[in-house]
Specification:
By secondary structure, the protein is α+β, with helices and mostly antiparallel strands. About 40% of the residues lie in helices and about 10% in strands. It has helices at about 5-20, 30-40, 40-55; strands spanning about 25-30, 60, 70. A three-stranded antiparallel β-sheet has the order 1-3-2.
Length: about 80
């Protein structure tokens, strides 16, 4: 369904933006933190995250043995990243 997880996606995306230290930083969103900060159930969180990923707003950055991390998708970022 096209709208499934949309409301949860909005609040999850806001949480991601609040946790970013810079636009290309990875963010971890453990289910316990989402439940505690946003009051979303695990199922709501899962559907919201799936909606963000399917709409190319976030990209998964898997790390072995750790919670999944997410970064802003390239389509969200505007302009060229700064070089060090």
């Amino acid at each position: 369904r096209s709208g499934e997880g949309s409301l949860a996606a909005v609040v999850l995306f806001r949480l991601v933006l609040d946790r970013l230290s810079h636009p290309q930083a990875p963010v971890s969103l453990p289910a316990s933190a989402v439940a505690g900060e946003l009051g979303l159930s695990e199922d709501q969180s899962r559907r919201g995250m799936k909606a963000l990923l399917s709409r190319d707003l976030l990209a998964e950055q898997p790390q072995a043995g750790r919670a999944k991390q997410y970064v802003l998708a390239a389509s969200v970022l505007v302009g060229q990243p700064a070089t060090a």
